[in-house]
Amino acid sequence: MSKIVFILLVISQLNSCKNNTQSVVTVNGKMSSNKMDVTLVHEHLLVDFIGADNISKNRYNQEEAFSVILPHLKSLYQKGCRTLIECTPQYLGRDISLLKRLSDSSGIQILTNTGYYGAAGEKFLPSSLNNQSAEDLAKSWILEAKEGIEGTGIRPGFMKLGVDDLPFSTSIIKILKAAAITHKATGLPIAIHTSNGGKPALEELRLLTESGVDPDSWIWVHAQNEKDISYHIEAAGKGGWVEFDGIDNNNTEEYIDFLRKMKAAKLLNRVLISQDAGWYHVGEAGGGVFRNYNSIFESFIPAMKKAGFTEKDIQMLLIENPSKAFSIR
Predict the structure, then answer these.
(1) In whole angstroms, what is the distance from residue 250 CA to residue 45 CA?
(2) Domain boundaries, position 295
């Protein structure tokens, strides 16, 4: 066991002793958020890019996918990770029974989601959305949150949405309104893939807060797509969560610079980090090339220490902030 992993495990054990009444919802049910320990907030296990009109679980063999993915999760567990936020939404390959099997077999707690992904030109929005109101859509998401997904009884731990650029289309406005309604009924946090930077992110935040959502329940996914740190500072300063995902061994300095600037602004406590790594690619032989989840542990944490970040900073980013951001409000 490496020194870094040992330190993270000690920190997580100390953290779990703290009194915390907040909870999260995993594929194995509700648990206290202080049991999340070391957490990766944005990863994928299986994804299918075929589009909402053609997606089907018949397009892959779950046994093959399970055998491909499981070793990566076991390796992640050995590196000290205890919770993974699985961000694949409905119509992009969300497979609830697969997630449950992988969690049970690896020991890693997994959170899944409800919601619709409207990025990528709305390719992953079902045509049925055209005939639904925001209220109708929210009813289906609330049903998943309260009774479970696809008859499994497994409930989502957050909402995952996706948007591209301004101006937002009628469909995007609809899913944002549905997310606000669902949040007020369930307390689920709202994580939004934002393809095109700070302006659409701040517009999301404005629309949600005007609908009664506290900024603390909004997560700006792919904040690294915006290079102007002033947008990150504004979003975090308003109480939102700024997520820099996509970390790998080739972009360490860029992400260290993001964190350095957020720390200088005294807003590191509003930052989330992850890798957006994985996954079993449906439609590719053997699931294609799987990018493992090791970069944060093997290269990024050592780089943070070299750059002057403290153990307390690392604990904040990998334990404290995720447990707050994904707690049910």
Answers:
(1) 22
(2) 38-47+54-325
Q: How many domains does the chain have?
A: 1
pTM (two decimals): 0.93
The pLDDT tens digits along the chain (329 residues) read 555 555 555 454 544 444 347 999 999 999 999 999 999 999 999 999 999 999 999 999 999 999 999 999 999 999 999 999 999 999 999 999 999 999 999 999 999 999 999 999 999 999 999 999 999 999 999 999 999 999 999 999 999 999 999 999 999 999 999 999 999 999 999 999 999 999 999 999 999 999 999 999 999 999 999 999 999 999 999 999 999 999 999 999 999 999 999 999 999 999 999 999 999 999 999 999 999 999 999 999 999 999 999 999 999 999 999 999 999 98
The count of other CB atoms within 10 Å of the CB of residue 133 is 12
CATH number of domain containing 124:
3.20.20.140
**Going by C-beta distance under 8 Å and a sequence separation of 6 or more, which residues neighbour residue 294?**
75, 76, 79
> Is 236 among the domain residues?
yes
Task: Give which of 231, 305, 306, 303 is closest to 261, Cα–Cα.
Answer: 231
Longest dimension (CA), the chain: 55
142 half-sphere exposure, CB direction, 13 A CA radius: 16
Token pair 């497994």 is at which residue? Answer: 154
Report the amino acid identity of residue 47: V
Any domain includes 6: no
Count Cβ neighbours within 10 Å for each residue of 146-165 and write b for 16 or more, e otherwise.
Answer: eeebeeeebbbbbbbbbbbe
Asked if 205 and 240 count as a contact pair (C-beta separation under 8 A), the reply is: yes
